[in-house]
Specification:
Elements lengths: L1 E6 L4 E8 L2 E9 L4 H15 L9 E5 L5 H18 L3 E4 L4 H10 L23
Parallel strand pairs: 1-4, 4-5
Antiparallel strand pairs: 1-2, 2-3
């Protein structure tokens, strides 16, 4: 099973490609405030460098948090959109072993159709000014 992993909760973003539990490739870059502009481009370039395309992806694992509100929102939105568009399962995972836990869930057939972010605290959204 070809699995794409995404982590976007901090200024340095990470993407990985796995065949089952075996890591095929991994990339990190300082995305910071350009994450929304660079994430899809980085995924495409990364997959091409590995001789793959999005059509080969069979599952997605996203780091679900806690972390940056905007970073998590962007990464998980991209992960969910890819999973939906490709018709593949997605898993959200937390902690230091998030990739291993997420991959294990996918390989066990426990993937979902949607991953949700975990911010670590209630989200504080200010009221719109009139």
């Amino acid at each position: 099973m070809l699995i794409l992993t995404l982590r976007t909760d901090k200024p340095e973003a990470e993407i990985g490609l796995y065949e089952g539990e075996k890591q095929l490739g991994y990339d990190t870059w300082l995305a910071h405030r350009q994450l929304a502009e660079t994430l899809l481009q980085k995924i495409t370039t990364f997959l091409q460098a590995e001789g793959r395309g999005t059509e080969g992806i069979q599952g997605i694992v996203c780091f679900e948090g806690p972390g940056s509100f905007t970073g998590l929102r962007i990464g998980i939105s991209v992960g969910n959109a890819l999973a939906y568009g490709l018709g593949v399962p997605i898993v959200g995972a937390q902690g230091d072993e998030w990739q291993i836990e997420g991959i294990t869930e996918l390989l066990a057939g426990h993937g979902a159709t949607l991953a949700l972010p975990f911010y670590g605290a209630p989200v504080h959204i200010t009221e719109q000014k009139k």
